[in-house]
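New to this. Comment on this protein:
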Amino acid sequence: MTERVKNVRMRTSSIVVAGGTLVSRVLGLVRDVAIAGYFGAGAATDAFFVAYRIPNTLRRLLAEGGVTVAVQPVYAERLKGDDSTVADFERRVFTTARLSLLVIVAVGVVAAPWLIPLFAAGFDTSGPVYDDAVVLLQLLFPFVFFIGLIGVGMGILNTRGRFWAPAVGPAVLNLGLIAGCLVAARLSFPDWPPAALLAIGAVVGVAGWWVLMRWELRRAGVSLGFASPRGDAGIAEVLRLLVPAVAGLAVYQLQVVVGTQFASFQATGGISSLFYADRLVQFPLALIATSTGVVMLPLMANLRAMDKPLNDALGDAFSWVLFLALPAAVGLLVIGDLAISVLFQRGEFDAAAVARTSAAVGGYAIAMVPASLNRIMLPVFYAHKDMATPVR
């Protein structure tokens, strides 16, 4: 590769990503503790978590997931060309993203009343929880615009071997949510849903994350201007790869949707308990598997662009992740209920909420090791532009 790409070492780069992720996850725990303490696990959080689940699902599918996956192998090939070719691709891919995301946000705001039942059919459409969820979703949909641009920026920066800004960025999002919770504890608006300030905090936080990404992209010399999306075969290839990449990632998201649907038919607080359990399990999963997976895709894409073998890097990643994920999963099974009690049992989060959340943690922990190894294997297929095998 040219000098545009920093050297990507799997373990060293994974530690960099894990360090940034650790900051984000610690702030995420602070966020969850603040939300649990002020709102508890009841109707207000059920409405917010369902509404937040929808843009967050689009985040996983289109931004940090599909877009990042589709951009990196194509961009790795472009980096072998001259500066004008690289800059032209960068401008075109960002322009395509901006136009597409504006359409998605507009459609999402209008379609919010019909989207909520897709994720929580158990909500009574004539009840206050459903009404609050619709309003919260409309407030949250601008989130999708910023996170989509972040997804493109992540793909470009990761391919260039620059990992710290994408890893630290979620911390800025969490700061926005924490601020929203703190303001909600002091201010109330009778005509707004109780968690409205949380939704606003999420949008402010993700906008701050994009500001950080823009700064790092500028430092890397990436062109962020406008250019017609037409006339570049690379953009067409990204779009061609995007559809099956999203389909493959949708398998996991479907599990999330199904779990939320089941929980929506349970007693009040079921959705919230599922959310808190997922956040606890995602802490070690993000530090171990996600951080390594983030590094693996650009590493594999760059190795493939240079026609080098991938076997050694894949074997190293497998041993590294298995060494860390297995004891983490056992730890969650053994002390999950204690961790939930220590972290969340205060204020409105009572012993019944601890019991519900602990049961969900046990189920998630069993799946942690195979989920971790899966995140390491997928980048091999993506680097070869093979999106069909992960779908199957």
The mean pLDDT is 84.
